[in-house]
Specification:
By secondary structure, the protein is an alpha/beta fold. The chain contains ten helices and 13 strands.
Length: 307
């Protein structure tokens, strides 16, 4: 398994927004030994316990421009992960989702422009909606299906606009289905943590529809590698998929979870979810060519880190 990024921006002052969250905290761990790391988080979903000692904490909301300006001041690079990441929550509260995801991103980008800091903005595979081709390249149509997807499309486009309009050294990453330690089993966190929790408890594993829908599951350590590679790159004003390029059916995922947990939990098929994307998989050729991104964690190996 990957032991983390091969390069870690040594000696740089780095800000991670949403650094107490699932992906953000793993990124902070990877950077903390070699960088002066700051974290901006209000811990509405993340946890202080996820953070290692020695990081500088700015306890604040990404919508608070003063808190953002304080956090960005003097840093060399900003990894912007703070977000409402729940599709369901974005449907229930689209104004709140927009305020955090879009207004918060604008606050980060504008502060970074004034601080002349490089920005890695985290978008999402949700910008593709039901993709026109699979594996999906960055050039595919961007047709999101939820307020969350629209928010992330705005994040994506604002970051690239700031690069073109203001010369901000900004780059966008579009992760696919990221999983790994510290991921909760709540609805937004993805099917992997839900399946593992059910399997370990011996409860039925819920599979929507026929289970032949496919996803691209990326271990969080590989996602961190991609984020750091984007920060180290000279690329600007561009977007990069982060995934494995491998399609895994939900049925195969359930079987793999049962195998690594040695569980007898039954698989229970439920009604298909309305609007569920049938197939999702990243074309990672551009990230490989430009960033040197090379995901290394196979699914069974990654699942084992959670057990």
């Amino acid at each position: 398994m990957s032991a983390g990024p091969s390069t870690t921006l040594p000696g740089r002052d780095v800000l991670v927004t949403g650094g107490g969250g699932f992906i953000g905290s793993h990124l902070v761990d990877a950077l903390a030994d070699d960088c002066d790391v700051r974290v901006l988080d209000d811990f509405s979903t993340g946890s202080r316990e996820n953070l290692p000692e020695g990081v500088t904490l700015v306890d604040g909301d990404v919508r608070d421009r003063e808190a953002v300006a304080e956090a960005v001041d003097g840093v060399d690079a900003v990894f912007h992960l703070a977000a409402v990441v729940s599709v369901d929550r974005s449907v229930e509260a689209p104004l709140e989702s927009h305020a955090v995801n879009v207004d918060g991103t604008l606050a980060v980008l504008d502060s970074a422009r004034r601080a002349d800091a490089r920005v890695v903005a985290v978008s999402s595979a949700a910008v593709y909606g039901d993709p026109s081709e699979v594996p999906t390249p960055e050039s595919a149509p961007l047709e999101p299906l939820s307020p969350y997807g629209v928010d992330k499309l705005a994040v994506d486009q604002y970051a690239r606009l700031y690069a073109d309009l203001y010369g901000l050294p900004a780059v966008v990453v579009r992760p696919f289905n990221v999983y790994g330690p510290r991921q909760s089993a709540s609805d937004y966190s993805g099917v992997v943590s839900v399946f593992l929790e059910r399997a370990l408890a011996g409860d039925p594993i819920p599979v929507h529809g026929d289970g032949e829908q496919t996803r691209d599951f990326l271990h969080v350590s590989d996602a961190v590698d991609g984020l750091v590679a984007a920060a180290e790159s000279d690329a600007t004003g561009e977007a990069f998929n982060l995934g494995t390029g491998r399609q895994v059916s939900v049925n195969d995922l359930a079987a793999a979870v049962k195998a690594v947990t040695d569980s007898d939990a039954p698989v229970r098929h439920t009604d298909p979810r309305s609007g569920d994307v049938r197939h999702s998989c990243a074309d990672v050729g551009k990230a490989h060519r430009t960033l040197g991104f090379e995901p290394s964690v196979r699914l069974r190996e990654g699942l084992a880190t959670l057990v």
